[in-house]
Amino acid sequence: MVNFCLDCGKIIISKQAIRCGSCACKTRIGKNNSMYGKHHSEETKRLMSLSKIGLKMPPRTQEYRDNVSKRMKGKPKSKESIEKMKETKKRLFKEGKIKVWNKGLNKEEDIRVRRNGINSSKTKKKLFKNKDYKEKFLENNSGCFQKGMIPWSKGKYLEYLRGENNHNWRGGICNEPYSFEFNKELKKYIRSKYNYRCAECGYSEKQLEYTLHIHHIDYNKKNYKEDNLMPLCRSCHSKTGFKRDDWTKYFQEKIGEIL
Length: 259
Fold this sequence. Notes:
Layout: E1 3-4, E2 11-12, H1 21-26, H2 42-51, H3 62-72, H4 79-95, H5 111-128, H6 131-140, H7 184-193, H8 205-208, E3 213-216, E4 229-232, H9 234-239, H10 244-258
Antiparallel strand pairs: 1-2, 3-4
């Protein structure tokens, strides 16, 4: 004999049930629930907690996670829920149960920090393509520079920082061309010589996801000898623009040990 749900009329597999699962849940919502308006005593809560000690929840499958994500998508959280989540996180931080994974790390020491910086800039560009997000961002950040605004420094040249007045002035050598021998083949050879790794921090091109720069140790663009060239990542190469004498001495000693 086939049983049908009293409310929706769907077929019920169980012979003892009179309602399907979804209809049965509806009958236990709000005032229809036997626990409506009642609360467990502290002793009952304690006993319930003790009964669950040692029990482990089954691992969440990917299908379960996807279903939860779909159900929660588009549902805004209430202000009370957000405040509760904030308070819970603060409490867990104080108790030491949650730790900041990047505390004490920098982009020179850890590739994950560097990747996050790159990914965040890419993510911002993608988000700004959405007009709704862009409008909300500009509303919440009204003091930030926006499209159409004129920067205060436009057309104003700080003469005391230009040319010979700048503390990094080297006689205009940045405009000098490189030697003809300093070509793609030579650069590729120098990178392969160091196993496609930065000579300073040791990160590889695969980790950095871009081609390494070739640095002239003595800052002479005409000097293309092997012992004067080494591959550097963007971060390490940018540091060599200051205190050039110290960097030259440091790299000459370092390349002497390598060779």
